[in-house]
Design a protein that fits this description.
337 residues, alpha/beta, eight-stranded mixed sheet, two-stranded parallel sheet, 9 helices, NAD(P)-bd_dom_sf, Epimerase_deHydtase
Length: 337
């Protein structure tokens, strides 16, 4: 697959004929880099030539950073969206009725009925990992993903054949591969042997227990960036105070994707029957020197504000953010198996 040579913040290449998701993205001029990364492309980027009638789509994790954008994307195309949540009050606060007419908010006891009415299910649920990792938090990171995925799969499998969803798009993570400062990973690479790799293996295996007639797309996601959430929202305030800088050595790989491109990929996976198995979706920079966390932070600093005070690893010695550098793993290459 051809590596895209894109100008800063301009995406022109794709993994399918008209899905505008490049394999790589390069900031050639640091002065053009801005903390908000990219304009809102969610309503502008075309997807593939496949056309789908209006769908009923059930989404777990819809109140999260990715889920909110996906709901907007689906609603813009007149699909019916069912938000599967554990907290109706939180969901209704995020999705007010006046802004989301027709959106269906469903609490956990009624998930089964909603899933059995759906054409497709998107599973994004899971506790965020960018927090301090105690043994209790690590258990919750794992259990929150496995529990919801298992429940979704069980409900799909229990559906009558005529009402069974036809596709399950389930998130997983680039943490599947473990960590490395030198190795390049793709979908054929073996799983790592650390904690997050174990979580991802179980997470994916749980999703793959779904009925064989249901098409499954597992998307291994890297660091998600966007102007209103994700890793960038945690980084920008430090830069605005002239205190931005790499965690630890700065040599860690930082594989990333913009939230709008990820949403367009999920949308494509829903409607395109050729999307199966596993996908990596996280962008790299053009060369090794610019793919590390240190290089990216340096470039961001030039575009926002240079660091006068650098936040070294001793400031957050046991945090989950330090351990995985805001989810930065080994260098990954995107593309279908």
């Amino acid at each position: 697959m051809v590596v895209a040579k894109a100008a800063a913040l301009t995406w022109t290449h794709s993994v399918s004929p008209s899905l505008h998701i490049p394999q790589s993205f390069s900031v050639r001029d640091a002065r053009r880099f801005r903390p908000f990364c990219a304009s809102d492309q969610s309503q502008k980027v075309p997807v593939s030539g496949f056309r789908e009638n209006e769908m009923i789509v059930s989404i777990t994790g819809a109140t999260g950073f990715i889920g909110r954008r996906l709901v907007q994307r689906l609603r813009a195309d007149n699909h019916t969206v069912q938000v599967l949540t554990r907290s109706r009050s939180r969901a209704e606060l995020i999705f007010p009725v006046k802004d989301y007419p027709g959106l269906i908010v469903v609490e956990e006891p009624k998930w089964k009925n909603c899933i059995q009415m759906s054409k497709a299910v998107v599973n994004l649920a899971g506790m965020p990992i960018s927090t301090r990792w105690s043994s209790e938090i690590k258990k919750e990171i794992k259990d929150s993903r496995i529990r919801v995925t298992s429940k979704v799969v069980d409900y799909i499998n229990a559906s009558p054949e005529e009402n069974r969803p036809t596709v399950l798009v389930s998130a997983t993570a680039a943490g599947y591969y473990g960590t490395s400062e030198t190795q390049v990973f793709d979908e054929r690479s073996p799983s790592g042997n650390d904690y997050l790799a174990e979580v991802c293996r179980i997470w994916e295996a749980t999703a793959l227990k779904v009925n064989k007639d249901v098409r499954v797309a597992l998307i291994r996601i890297g660091v998600v960036l966007g102007k209103d959430g994700g890793a960038l929202a945690k980084m920008v305030p430090l830069f605005m105070m002239f205190a931005g800088g790499p965690l630890g050595s700065g040599r860690q790989w930082f594989s990333w994707i913009h939230v709008d491109d990820l949403v367009n990929l999920i949308y494509e996976a829903l409607i395109n029957p050729s999307y199966k198995a596993r996908f990596n979706r996280s962008y790299q920079w053009d060369c090794a020197e610019s793919g590390t966390l240190g290089r990216i932070v340096w470039t961001a600093g030039r575009g926002i504000r240079p660091a006068l005070l650098v936040a070294r690893s001793r400031i957050c010695p046991q945090s989950g953010a330090r351990r995985r550098c805001l989810c930065g793993f080994g260098r990954t290459k995107g593309g279908p198996c």
